[in-house]
Design brief:
Rossmann fold, 33% helix, 201 residues, methyltransferase activity, alpha/beta, two-stranded antiparallel sheet, Methyltransf_25, globular, Methyltransferase domain-containing protein, 8 helices
């Protein structure tokens, strides 16, 4: 499975146009995004980690007054973000090397963070902390339990990894975040397993 994990960036680079076409614009995530937004100040800064082509999630945030900084490893997807939302800040980069030198009111890693191998996921939590302002909200998706799974995109294997829920809680606690809400395979959100946390220290 390691080979599949290492190939995720290449997969999105090669099939960026197909992903843009296939990713639905219907926002089943809206109720989670609105819960996230309810914990942010007015006109907040939001870091979208693994932002893809900016639709529909970043669009939803921008339309609600957020100043969005998006980071994604796939340059063709970032190019689409820049074309669609030129007033926002879009950067090509690997989330595992996140070092923007600033803090945000909110951080989101929706359907992106779970493409990392478990050890890489563990190393992300200090990076979340380093980019989170006091009281910042953090929203991300994971698998329902510890393990690895291989999906398919454009006929090629697509890696997904997850830690155990107890380990996510421990990592959040160790980096100063408290879990606000956690739902496993939310039936109202396409079966996503969702975490909403907030920086407390």
């Amino acid at each position: 499975m390691t080979d599949s994990a290492d190939a995720v960036v290449s997969l999105y680079l090669r099939h960026a146009a197909a992903y843009d076409q296939q990713r639905g614009r219907k926002l089943m995530e809206a109720h989670w995004l609105d819960r996230f937004l309810s914990r942010l100040p007015a006109t907040p800064s939001v870091l979208d980690i693994g932002c893809g082509m900016g639709e529909p999630i970043a669009r939803h945030l921008i339309e609600r007054g957020c100043a969005v900084t998006g980071i994604d490893s796939a340059a063709p997807l970032i190019a689409l973000c820049r074309k669609r939302f030129p007033q926002q800040d879009w950067q090509v980069g690997d989330m595992r090397e996140l070092a923007l030198g600033r803090r945000f009111d909110g951080l989101i890693a929706w359907d992106s963070f779970f493409h990392l191998k478990p050890d890489d996921q563990r190393r992300m939590f200090p990076l979340f902390r380093a980019h989170a302002a006091d009281g910042a909200a953090l929203l991300f998706t994971s698998g329902p339990g510890h393990g690895e799974a291989i999906g398919s995109f454009e006929g090629e294997p697509l890696y997904h990894g997850s830690l155990d829920p107890s380990e996510y809680r421990a990592l959040l606690n160790a980096t100063g975040f408290a879990v606000v809400e956690h739902i496993v395979e939310d039936p109202n959100c396409g079966g996503h397993t969702v975490w909403l946390a907030q920086r407390t220290t």
